[in-house]
């Protein structure tokens, strides 16, 4: 029994060292080193593991030596680091985007369903049924190849306005809208195979807002798919430059391949301009739908100050490795 306890103690000490180092290195989240960047993703998991290991060490250890004390300090530092980021996605902090409560008749309400379909996924009926159930005004789908584009064409009967930017390397996107799309501008922010686009959406009363759809590449390397090898991860900053000088209220949505953790300002350069719906409300982890233990929020909806939130939901699985995200927003009359 004593031997087993000693082995367990050594394992806990080793895990504590790894967790402490990983937590401290995660502070370099904006480094161009992709390994450091990837430590920013599992903050929820690192926080929970650090807390569990801390409790177990306290229970098991009876003789406290300098090394054990250092381990405790390292774990507490890691827990503090992760808490600093994660607390913004709890109800302990105020929301950034106000909740819509006293709506006026002149306020324009609309809904958006945001989904990364996963190009290899062939369960299109699940998504189409979900769209029929939620009846969103806007549908943004990512990783759309020719097959998915053909399957989603059935939406045209309910969505008379649409735009498709299709490719076969997982970065195709389509937007279906019940509102007129007055303008579509396709851009390739950092990679000529990774499109993003801006559309100006107009309500019946003539009010408009700018909708940016974006799907940057993740901080990894791929053999057959686009990546950011040799490039700075500045797609969001390029987008931010457009938003800072915005002409209309602005909505940004997409699979950002970044957890953000309340650093939207830094990632986009849009200080006091762009706000995260999740702040003050919850994590709404959208990835990985196939792995309960490794989930974090990758799919985001960000808005300028003219918007309020009616509803934010993570929807059911559709065969993809991402859960769809559904939001109901209000474009509030500012006069």
UniProtKB/TrEMBL annotation:
Protein keywords: Endonuclease, Hydrolase, Membrane, Nuclease, Transmembrane, Transmembrane helix
* Key word Hydrolase present: yes
Transmembrane annotation, as ranges = 7-29, 41-60, 67-87
Endonuclease/exonuclease/phosphatase domain residues are 116-322
Q: Name the InterPro entries on file.
A: Endo/exonu/phosph_ase_sf, Endo/exonuclease/phosphatase
Pfam families in alphabetical order: Exo_endo_phos
Output the superkingdom of the source species: Bacteria
Cite a single GO MF annotation.
endonuclease activity
* Record keyword Hydrolase present: yes
**This chain belongs to which protein, by name?**
Endonuclease/exonuclease/phosphatase family protein
Organism field: Gelidibacter pelagius
The record lists the lineage as: Bacteria, Pseudomonadati, Bacteroidota, Flavobacteriia, Flavobacteriales
């Amino acid at each position: 029994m004593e031997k087993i306890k000693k082995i367990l103690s050594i394992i806990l000490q080793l895990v504590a060292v790894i967790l402490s180092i990983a937590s401290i290195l995660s502070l370099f989240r904006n480094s161009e080193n992709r390994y450091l960047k990837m430590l920013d993703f599992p903050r929820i998991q690192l926080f929970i593991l650090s807390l569990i290991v801390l409790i177990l060490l306290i229970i098991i250890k009876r003789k406290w030596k300098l090394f054990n004390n250092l381990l405790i300090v390292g774990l507490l530092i890691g827990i503090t680091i992760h808490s600093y980021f994660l607390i913004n996605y709890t109800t302990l902090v105020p929301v950034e985007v106000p909740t819509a409560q006293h709506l006026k008749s002149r306020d324009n309400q609309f809904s958006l369903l945001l989904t990364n379909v996963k190009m290899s996924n062939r369960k299109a009926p699940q998504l189409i049924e979900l769209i029929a159930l939620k009846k969103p005004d806007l549908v943004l789908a990512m990783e759309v190849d020719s097959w998915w584009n053909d399957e989603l064409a059935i939406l045209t009967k309910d969505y008379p306005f649409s735009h498709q930017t299709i490719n076969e390397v997982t970065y195709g996107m389509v937007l279906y809208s019940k509102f007129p799309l007055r303008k579509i501008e396709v851009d390739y922010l950092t990679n000529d195979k990774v499109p993003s686009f801006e559309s100006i959406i107009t309500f019946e009363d003539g009010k408009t807002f700018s909708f940016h759809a974006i799907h940057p590449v993740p901080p990894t390397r791929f053999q057959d798919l686009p990546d950011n090898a040799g490039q700075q991860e500045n797609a969001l900053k390029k987008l931010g430059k457009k938003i800072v000088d915005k002409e209309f209220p602005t909505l940004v949505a997409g699979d950002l391949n970044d957890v953000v953790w309340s650093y939207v300002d830094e990632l986009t350069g849009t200080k006091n301009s762009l706000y995260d719906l999740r702040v003050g409300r919850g994590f709404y982890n959208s990835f990985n739908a196939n792995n309960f233990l490794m989930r974090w929020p990758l799919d985001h909806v960000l808005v300028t100050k003219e918007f309020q939130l009616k509803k934010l939901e993570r929807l059911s699985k559709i065969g993809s490795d991402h859960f769809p995200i559904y939001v109901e927003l209000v474009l509030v009359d500012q006069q």
